[in-house]
Prior knowledge:
Layout: E1 9-11, E2 20-24, E3 29-35, H1 38-43, H2 54-80, H3 90-111, H4 115-119, E4 122-125, H5 135-142, H6 154-171, H7 178-183, E5 186-189
Helix pairs in contact: 2-3, 3-5
Amino acid sequence: MPEDHPEPGWYRSDDDPPGTHRYWDGGHWVGEPQPLPPQVADAVPVLGYRLGSPWQRIAAQLTDIAILYGATILARALVDDEIAWSSASPTSALLMFVVTIGYEVGMVASIGATAGKSLLGLRVVDPSGHYPPGPAAAARRWIPKLVLLVPFVGIPLSMATVLASMIYLFSDPGRRSVFDRTGGTYVISVR
Length: 191
């Protein structure tokens, strides 16, 4: 039974070959697996879910950046009594590092989405289509962000990672960014 889709319709069964679906009558699978139509196969990974659009994902990321920026301002005000980036104390920098990991890794591991993804109806799923994907996948998704910490070349490396992710979002049939590829995840739309 498709746990997330009890109503009758065409769904992907975990027991069927990739790129196929079959009819669920509300209680049982009916017939043999059928190949996904070409237009559906291009838009839906083998998981049987509708992928989040590149624009949804970009909007979710911008929302998350705004939330984390607000948290940074708050942390700087509370710890250092100022909000300037140039003179962040080691304490506030460490605090923001921990908050960022908790926000991005913790939320994806526990509920399958950050606040930005949740607001835009997105969920991060593991290769079998389950969410939340768990702590290991959530941590692996976050690892590419550590390039920012590389001395002298961190900012260009981070920008290259973002650019590669944008190219993948618009060109890869699975719409998997660098972060999805590292984490072994997909981002689906639940709306």
